[in-house]
# Entry
Amino acid sequence: MFRNVLLVCAALLYVLTPAVSRAAERKPNIVFILADDLGYRELGSFGQMKIKTPNLDRLASQGMKLTQHYCGNAVCAPSRCVLMTSKHPGHATIRSNKSTPPEGQWPIFDEDVTLAEVLQGQGYVTGAFGKWGLGGPGSCGDPMAQGINRFFGYNCQSHAHSYYPSYLWDNDKHIALNNNPPVPGHKGLAKGADPSDPRSYDEFKGQDYAPDRINAAALEFVRANKDRQFFLYYPTVIPHVALHVPDEELKPYLELGWKDPPFSKASGYGYTPHFTPRAAYASMITRMDRYVGNVLNLLDELGLSDNTIVVFSSDNGTTHLGEEVDYTFFESVGELRGLKGSLYEGGVRVPTLVRWPGKVKAGSENDRVSGFEDWMPTLLDLLDKSEAVPDDVDGISLAPTLLGKHQDPRPFLYREFPSYGGQQTIRVGDWKAVRQNMTRADSISKVKTELYNITEDISEKNDVAKQHPDIVAKLEKMMAENRVPSEVFPLLPIDPPPKRSKQ
# Structure
């Protein structure tokens, strides 16, 4: 009998050993959630007092807050390009938003190596759910051509201006939504409509809320791949305007009795009107928070949380459209200067959270300067696969910082943005050089360089360039050295403008 017990134990050991071995070899899953136009102070964990974000606040308590993390650029597409390719804006393929009608944005190149492609090479199944914006359908920048196994959502940024569209992309095919008619992202009140009558705004309410569909597809991806290594890239469209949100989400904020004057688009500028814009904006962020909670809860349910790295961030700062998003009321960027479209801190410093139970200390925070270009080398470092990082990236692994080890300061962080007047910045230690309105000058010598000590002057109110000409000269030299010209996205007056083809 004793011999039989030994034989049974040996058989069980034989059966279980391969499974145990596979589990030990399995690398952590990666979930990267990217908000759209979320300001630095719009999460409770980053100081927000009016908008409720309980799930993201819980995520912050379970991991690390990065308090000096910078998105890739001041608007959507170029910021996402930095994230996906690990190249800062002086080297990135896409440096501003540029549409490619009838649908999509200027594509990243075939030769651009994306985070998704690198992770695919490490055996990960990859999925993207939300807004892509790095190349139109069928282009070389299409998500299915850039390392994404499963895509669901909006390919095009303009299409994503509506939360009640007629369709979304399901891989390379359309899936129809039950919005008849679809709600446009840009439209004013009907002629003769009374802006003080809430019924005048009913035409901007749909039936089939696209973010619900996207969240469901992301959850389905996690369930389908629970036994595999997966990379979930979740670039949610919230809280980018238009102000579209189901009425039931508004109720808790309407009960607060805020003075909430309607956004009627009377000036003709903006997206679509809303009768209670403050409540709408807050409720959109709270709904996004619930979507994040759905993902986190599913990881718990499937027993995946301990072996999943979760990162949350935003593609840029709060929208500058103050008539429909009251960023002053919400103190969306707090003490920071600038909004979306600006390379001042409020446009590019973004709330960022990282959780990896048992590896990243719960309830911690770190103020080391870092940026979107750092995520590819960071994640591969955490996977013990640093050798897979392409040689030409600009990112520096944050892994030592996340794991609680000493790490030297980042040598510099460079940004350029040829739109919104033309802008250029570089951060070296506490010093930050800023150039604005570059397109108005006919030579670089006529461009003013501002200088701020960010540690002493986080609001960038006191330009101390005149007091420190040596530092200005050093930073100007570094800005010149750490970029290459772009024919498609020239930074004037440094680069020559694109040549016009002869008619």
Summary: The radius of gyration is 24 Å.
